[in-house]
Design brief:
Number of strands: 11
Order of helices and strands: HHHEHHEEHHHHEHEHEEHEHEHEE
Mean pLDDT: 94
Structural class: alpha/beta
Number of helices: 14
Oligomer: single chain
Radius of gyration: 22 Å
Strand content: 15-25%
Largest sheet: 8 strands, mixed
């Protein structure tokens, strides 16, 4: 529980916090960190690259410097170690795609009162968005999964299993890391046909074409072909109502071999549904962008697994960024 006192100053700080958020989004959208690179440049040089007025560019760079993501002296602006590492597109630790995805959500959050009052989403589903927004979402998921997978994969014991299905796996990041960790494992990533180019490029870049395959399909509407030992469901249930989640988990159960495991990775709420903070806010984000999607509690996820027929349901000892957690169940042998 957040015990920090809510003073007028804290209330106003929270109310205006989106200013800094939008400044960061703007700098990433204009790619100023990549343009500066390893150099120290003045605002005029950046403005010339952008073909933009110098005054507005200087104001943006000054705000970003005030936030501590650039340094400034008499000769101009330079990246900090953090901005060079995480906000320059030529870095292999780039986080810009997920930041661009966050930016695409800003307009819907501004209409939150409308969504709460009507119960209707504001945004189109990701599958119906344009290429640029889909790329930001998919590669944003890649950004996050690349940071988390090395910590998460060893926690999920898949020793002795041979075939994994990454359901709704996007670029296939987790499938790739599971296969790297378990030498006898092969994986299939099932996601929409529109996701296939992003996934196959990621699989190729990671050198895993021989062990990770892509299966185009809509797991909500289509049957799942094949038999598997593990079904990995990372951040797909929050996009669906409880009825939709039950349908997905039932499909996962049906395609598993006896003794196989279904593994859910989600932002998990306490059973009271009012903590932790990020999953509670994320549930609002799902109200804005889905028909029926939400964050779920451990009890709710466990009940879904049990309804599908899973046994030995347990939450693994893992807490990821923003309170992500893992719940697994076993298909009886």
């Amino acid at each position: 529980m957040n015990q920090q006192q809510w003073t007028p100053e804290r209330i106003l700080e929270t109310s205006g916090a989106y200013w800094a958020t939008c400044a960061l989004h703007g700098a990433v959208a204009l790619d100023v960190f990549t343009r500066i690179g390893d150099n120290r440049v003045d605002g005029k040089a950046v403005a010339e690259q952008l073909d933009a007025p110098v005054d507005g560019v200087n104001r943006l760079l000054d705000a970003i410097a005030a936030m501590g993501l650039l340094t400034k002296d008499a000769s101009g602006y330079a990246n900090t170690p953090a901005s060079r590492t995480y906000l320059s597109v030529d870095s292999d630790r780039y986080l810009g795609y997920i930041i661009r995805h966050h930016h695409h959500l800003v307009g819907s959050w501004a209409r939150l009162p409308e969504a709460v009052a009507t119960g209707k989403p504001i945004l189109l589903p990701v599958r119906e968005k344009g290429t640029e927004e889909r790329e930001a979402f998919l590669m944003g998921m890649f950004n996050l999964a690349m940071r988390l997978a090395p910590r998460l994969v060893p926690v999920v014991d898949l020793s002795g299993y041979r075939k994994l299905l990454d359901l709704g796996g996007g670029p296939g990041t987790y499938a790739i890391h599971f296969c790297r960790h378990y030498a006898d494992l092969t994986a299939t990533v099932m996601d929409l046909p529109t996701t296939r180019p992003f996934a196959e490029e990621t699989i190729r870049k990671m050198g895993m074409e021989e062990r990770v395959a892509y299966l185009p399909g809509d797991f909500l509407q289509d049957d799942i072909p094949g038999r598997y030992d593990v079904v990995w469901m990372s951040h797909i249930l929050h996009g669906e109502s409880s009825k939709g989640c039950n349908r997905i988990i039932q499909k996962a159960f049906q395609c598993l071999n006896p003794g196989g495991v279904g593994v859910i990775h989600e932002f998990i709420l306490d059973d009271t549904l009012d903590q932790p903070l990020f999953p509670a806010l994320f549930s609002l984000n799902m109200l804005l962008g889905t028909e029926g999607g939400r964050a779920y509690s451990q009890a709710q996820l466990g009940s879904m697994l049990e309804t599908a027929g899973f046994v030995d349901i347990q939450r693994l000892d893992f807490t990821g960024p923003n309170d992500s957690g893992i719940v697994r169940g076993v298909k009886p042998a």
